[in-house]
Write a structure and sequence with these properties.
By secondary structure, the chain is mainly β. The chain has 6 helices and 45 strands. It has 2 domains: about 375 residues, no CATH class; about 300 residues, 6 Propeller (Neuraminidase). The protein is about 10% helix and about 40% strand.
């Protein structure tokens, strides 16, 4: 930890700039000059290159420049602005200068966090001109686009080529890193004063490519320079128009939007080269470049002719090959075009387009891109996430991390990810077992047999079932303990017995009995005739079972007090058991796992998920002579994520150096969060 300017930080300013270099993105600029396109070029440039070619106006007196220096921008009023001397909108400077371009980085502690929990590395890219917008129409399988060219703009303002164009354009992408390990937690792709968060594995990196680094790849959109995680054609964020009209006696729906278009065929711009530190909020001694606080605009104000822009965009529509004759006529339908124009006027808010404000004066600079989204298990159907009313389960294996849940139809589902990131790009993205349960279930990996064992209760008879799988789609023979019943999900774990024999233990709270039952198998095959262990206790929930510091430990909730209990046994027979009671209660089955030599527990209480750790598993409280063995008590979620936990079983796992936590929200969506220090979860 570091103390900088009276603040406790987990990284020094020097280390943070090293991370900024390490994660500086590669940017695929649009290949404007490619012969297949031959579009006007709108490339980035450096601030110095731009200042050498523009003049400063609106500050009173004679216009200054070109050239200008950074000193010319100091103490200017907000009414001042920069402008390319370009009376006919034909200046070669409009194209920018990719050869001179550098990225600028703003480093700050993530707003809403303290003690260096996470940091934002905010990269800014500057373009001499933002090109005109492009309309996009979708009509069934037909897809059409057209540039919104304007030829008769207000002559009292600088001429421009099309709707949406302005001089001086700043765009941004933010890399958020953990304050514990420096790993990337997410990348924010800035788009039109807003943008989109992508979690790891949801965006491209150079891993295994140009320099084999985990640096994110950013795609800069044609003309607009919006930042995207992939190449393709998209609708501009925040604007969609839907109209219905009639053709040939049929009601036809037509969708209109503004086109964002990325193409990765051009060699990527390496933003690490020449990276400029524009601001470091963690270092009170840092002096930013003078241009950072320029109060004026980086371009003049344009009068926007929205009607002509839309009409010309429709006239210039690039239609698909051999479209039906009625497609073009429909797109020139007065009702459709008038409605589209009105929607655009409402969207733009005025007929003026201004040059970009200095990043320092933009909300993204001051407030950051907001909280990371909590990763929900995605679904290819609606809703776009997996749901469960019961809870979740984990099993860490050499092949990857299993997550499991009981679906709304009571089906057992498992999903294996080699990386621990759950994305629809992983196929098959889930496996639905031919089994059902009306409780949550439990999983454990048994290395001796290279199997992941799943334990659950039957829907109709509440019998205990155990079945092994290697990948979630190929199964061993199911074992059923028909003589034993449980109202709750069973617990299961692999462990090493006192004689050194690897084994699997399954435990459950017997229905109608004031006892827990445990059964052990060295071959992970279970039946009613095997001996079992009885532990006198009455639980209000199901059990968690964990092997920690060579002891089997049962975690349960006392039926009378609701307090969390841990019953441990060095022999595994529980004749030598020791039970401790927590000063915390739970209304759902708890979870337990070993992570970095600590025992971690998770449970639901008072509308939150609680996470607590102990170095010896007994959670010894501190005293005047003993620091105790308790870690900090964490309440989840730690950041605003727009979701609230419900009374369902959480899950914990240790995988690839990360602590995983799964929980269920008020929409019954399954959230998966990770922590590299057991304190901060993302």
């Amino acid at each position: 930890m570091f103390e900088v300017g009276g603040k406790i930080m987990s990284f020094s300013p020097t280390q943070l700039f090293q991370y900024a270099q390490q994660y500086a993105p590669y940017v695929h600029l649009f290949p404007y000059a490619d012969p297949q396109y031959n579009f006007p070029v709108y490339d980035p440039c450096s601030v110095d290159w731009y200042l050498a070619r523009v003049q400063l106006l609106g500050s009173g007196g004679t216009p200054l420049g070109p050239p200008l220096s950074e000193a010319n921008l100091a103490n200017q009023p907000s009414s001042s602005y920069l402008q390319i001397p370009d009376p006919n909108a034909t200046s070669p400077y409009r194209a920018g200068d990719a050869a001179s371009a550098v990225a600028y980085v703003h480093i700050f502690e993530t707003p809403g966090t303290t003690g260096g929990a996470s940091y934002d590395l905010q990269y800014w890219f500057f373009y001499a001109v933002r090109g005109m917008s492009t309309i996009r129409f979708v009509l069934g399988p037909a897809y059409m686009w057209g540039d919104m060219i304007v030829t008769d703009g207000d002559t009292s303002t600088p001429p421009y080529l099309g709707l949406g164009e302005h001089q001086g354009d700043w765009k941004t992408a933010t890399v958020r890193i953990s304050g514990s390990s420096g790993r990337i937690l997410g990348v924010f792709f800035g788009q039109h004063n807003s943008g989109v968060w992508c979690l790891p594995n949801e965006y491209e990196t150079m891993q295994g490519r140009q320099d084999n680094a985990p640096r994110p790849v950013v795609y800069s959109a044609r003309n607009t320079h919006s930042c995207f995680s992939h190449e393709g054609q998209f609708s501009q964020i925040g604007f969609d128009y839907v109209a219905e009209t009639s053709i040939l006696g049929f009601d036809i729906g037509i969708g209109g939007s503004l086109l964002e278009w990325t193409d990765g065929s051009r060699p990527a711009w390496d933003c690490k080269q020449g990276l400029v530190l524009a601001a470091d909020d963690t270092d009170p001694t840092f002096t930013p470049p003078a241009w950072v606080t320029f109060a004026g605009g980086w371009g003049p104000v344009y009068k926007q002719n929205i009607v002509e822009g839309v009409q010309n965009g429709a006239t210039n529509l690039v239609l698909p090959a051999d479209p039906p004759s009625w497609v073009a006529s429909l797109l020139h339908n007065a009702e459709v075009m008038t409605g589209f124009e009105a929607a655009l006027e409402a969207f733009f808010g005025s007929h003026e387009e201004t040059g970009a404000a200095t990043p320092y004066n933009q909300g993204m600079w001051k407030q950051g891109p907001g909280p990371l989204p909590s990763a929900t298990l995605p679904s290819s159907a609606e809703p776009p996430y997996q749901t469960s009313p019961y809870g979740a389960a984990f099993a860490a294996t050499p092949a990857g991390l299993f997550v499991g849940w009981i679906g709304q139809d009571k089906s057992l589902n498992t999903w294996l990810s080699a990386t621990g990131v759950f994305s629809l790009s992983i196929q098959p993205y889930k496996n639905t077992w031919p089994q059902q349960s009306s409780n949550n279930f439990a999983m454990t990996y048994f290395a001796t047999e290279e199997q992941t064992y799943v334990a659950w209760t039957g829907v109709s008879d509440q019998s205990i079932n155990i079945q092994g799988t290697t990948d979630g789609s190929h199964f061993r023979t199911k074992s059923t303990l028909g003589s034993f019943k449980s109202s709750y999900a069973p617990a299961i774990t692999s462990y090493v017995a006192t004689n050194g024999t690897p084994a699997v233990c399954v435990a459950w709270a017997q229905k109608g009995a004031d006892a827990f039952y445990l059964m052990v198998s060295a071959g992970a095959s279970f039946d009613d005739q095997q001996p079992y262990i009885t532990v006198p206790a009455l639980s209000a929930t199901g059990l968690a079972l964990v092997f920690f510091q060579n002891e089997l430990r049962l975690v349960w909730v006392d039926a009378t007090s609701g307090a969390i209990q841990i019953t441990s046994s060095a022999t595994g027979g529980f004749q030598d058991s020791r039970t401790i009671s927590f000063p915390h209660t739970s209304t759902a089955t708890p979870a337990a796992v070993e992570f970095q030599g600590q025992l971690y527990l998770a449970w639901f209480a008072n509308g939150t998920i609680q996470v607590w750790s102990s170095s010896d598993g007994f959670f010894t409280p501190p005293s005047s002579s003993d620091p105790g063995t308790q870690g900090p008590l964490i309440s989840m979620p730690q950041w605003p994520i727009g979701a609230t936990p419900i009374n369902a079983t959480p899950a914990l796992a240790s995988f690839n150096g990360l602590l995983y936590l799964a929980w269920i929200d008020n929409e019954q969506a399954i959230h998966v969060m990770t922590s590299d220090d057991g304190v901060y979860f993302y």
